[in-house]
Amino acid sequence: MVALILAVVAAQAAPAAAADPLAPARAGLLQCYAPNPSAKTCQSIAGYVFKTDGTIINTAEVLVAPSPLVTMKTAEPVTVKSDAVCGALSDLDDAEVFVEGRPADPAVSAKVREQLLAAMAPMLGKEICSFYMQGNGALAVSATLDGRSVPEMATTVLWIAPTDGYVVRP
Predict the structure, then answer these.
(1) Please, what are the averages of pLDDT over each run of 10 residues along the chain (170 residues)?
(2) 157 contacts 13 by C-beta, under 8 angstroms
(3) Rounded Cα gap, residues 4 and 110, in angstroms
(4) Where are the domains positioned within the chain?
(5) Which of 19, 31, 55, 86 is the most buried (most CB within 10 A)?
(6) pTM to 2 decimal places
(7) Where are the beta strands (DSSP E) in the chain?
(8) Quick count: other Cβ atoms within 10 Å of Cβ 89?
């Protein structure tokens, strides 16, 4: 469950070193969290939608369970604050749940949302900011929750093209 929380939180981040931390996203790239380049898998894949009114929406597909494969797709507003991308986790009412790539039935979706909300309750409504630092071919992610460092949320991310063939899988 910690890995899922990290993936959801990490999906709201962008690299800190760039003048525009979302420049790669503006160029059409996606973020692959906890990447396995040889298998072309990610624990989550995030993208950004840049609206004409300046709003930024972070879209993410997150691994919930490996077998059967359960993923969740979310869309949450984020803001760029200095060298971080910040947002607050809200309820998961609009989250889409998938089992083996197909939309889950309403009962399964409700159960998954209920379990995730229980696990993420301490973070709901709080500001989560993610910071990236250039690493060994990937970016190292660190996060804060309401301004406090959360080391257990550390992960890595790789910018990928939508055509690179990466998927959300264990």
Answers:
(1) 45 48 92 97 98 97 97 96 89 92 96 93 92 85 95 95 98
(2) yes
(3) 17
(4) 2-168
(5) 31
(6) 0.86
(7) 30-33, 41-42, 44-50, 56-65, 70-81, 84-88, 96-99, 102-103, 127-134, 139-145, 148-149, 155-160, 167-168
(8) 22
